[in-house]
């Protein structure tokens, strides 16, 4: 006997989304394989690397540890929800400007972790930034350029009066 699917409704990158999912389907698999949002990466599959980080109601979660059915009635933001080619998010611009993108595998998770941090604390210290992104592994940059990019956005918010 097959597993019965459930219809879930949630907000995905600002859009109401309805989809039928199996009760055991992981959020990362739904995003990538069913909805075509391949910016969310599959890394370790155990919640240790942060490659699959998305925002669930504004908080970072490892989508490899969340069942798709758990997002019903909630809001999910993936890296595709930050910005696009015509209008990049300030974090995306800063990552490019500071050379914080190398292979790019960790970048989506880093960007979303940085967004969550700056939404919660617009003026973090370098130590707070480093601590906040510590759940996102990067093998290329050594983190300094990533921290510089996040700090650049925080400083530009300060220059604009915290907008």
CATH superfamily caption of the largest domain: Beta-grasp domain
Strand line-up in the sheet with most strands? 2-1-5-3-4
Give the helix proportion (percent range): 25-40%
Annotated CATH topology of the largest domain: Ubiquitin-like (UB roll)
Number of DSSP helical runs: 5
Count of beta strands: 5
Rough outline: globular
Rg, rounded, reads 16 Å
Average pLDDT taken over every residue: 93
Structural class: alpha+beta
Name the assembly state: single chain
- The proportion of residues in beta strands is 15-25%
Query: In CATH, what is the class of the largest domain?
Result: Alpha Beta
The CATH architecture of the largest domain: Roll
Largest sheet: 5 strands, mixed
Return the domain count: 2
Distance between the termini: 55 Å
- Name the helix and strand elements from N-terminus to C-terminus, one letter apiece: EEHEEEHHHH
Query: Can you tell me the residue ranges where pLDDT is under 50 for at least 5 consecutive residues?
Result: none
Provide an overview of this structure.
- The chain has 163 residues and is an alpha+beta fold.
- It has five helices and five strands; from the N terminus they run E-E-H-E-E-E-H-H-H-H.
- It has helices at residues 27-34, 90-97, 107-120, 126-132, 144-159; strands at 6-12, 15-21, 53-56, 59-62, 75-77.
């Amino acid at each position: 006997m097959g597993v019965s699917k459930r219809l879930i409704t949630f907000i995905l990158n600002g859009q109401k989304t309805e989809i039928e999912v199996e009760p055991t389907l992981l959020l990362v698999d739904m995003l990538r394989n069913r909805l075509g949002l391949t910016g969310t990466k599959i890394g370790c599959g155990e919640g240790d690397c942060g490659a699959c980080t998305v925002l669930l109601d504004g908080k970072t979660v490892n989508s490899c540890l969340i069942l798709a059915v758990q997002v019903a009635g909630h809001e999910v933001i993936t890296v595709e929800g930050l910005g696009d080619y015509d209008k990049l998010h300030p974090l995306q611009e800063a990552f490019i400007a500071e050379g914080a993108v190398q292979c790019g595998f960790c970048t989506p998770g880093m960007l979303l972790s940085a967004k969550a941090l700056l939404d919660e604390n617009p003026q973090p210290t370098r130590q707070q930034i480093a601590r906040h992104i510590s759940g996102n592994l990067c093998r290329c940059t050594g983190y300094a350029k990533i921290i510089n990019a996040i700090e650049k956005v925080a400083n530009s918010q300060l220059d604009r009066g915290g907008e």
